[in-house]
């Protein structure tokens, strides 16, 4: 007959592998921490030496943790793989510049519309076709921005 496994002796030899409970005894079911790294850590071309940090709120953290657990990965590995595999649509420098210019024009036209409404409320004359023209310009800018966004 085979000798029973002595958990206490194994825990005494490697205490960092087995968390102890309040009485100082290891749990009945031992956690197995297996870390598989498919890369050669000594190879400088493969070794990961740079850190990237980003902040998330509590609900985002729990969502990411849950997804990582469902995929059988630690959170950092899951986030790295998702970030490297996702296809983020990038915009060119020209699109970003045009986007910013359109935003400024939109803001200026919006201020002109507010001024026209204020003048009208104060009883001052406002050209009759000014408001429809300004609102048409705002709509044109909205369409351009949605085109650039897609």
Task: Name the helicity range.
Answer: 40-55%
How many helices does DSSP assign? 5
Topology as a string of helices (H) and strands (E): HHHHH
Radius of gyration: 31 Å
| Helix/strand/pairing category | mainly alpha
**N-to-C terminal Cα separation, in Å?**
71 Å
Shape: elongated
Uncertain regions spanning at least 5 consecutive residues: 30-36
- Hey, roughly how much beta strand do the residues contain? under 5%
Number-wise, the strands total 0
Largest sheet: none
If you average the pLDDT, what whole number results? 76
How would you characterize this protein structure?
With 150 residues, this protein is mainly alpha-helical. Among the domains are: 52-88, no CATH class; 93-149. Helix content is 53%, strand content 0%. It is built from five helices and no strands. The chain has helices at 7-13, 58-70, 75-85, 93-121, 130-149. Helix 2 packs across helix 3 and helix 4 runs antiparallel to helix 5 (130-149).
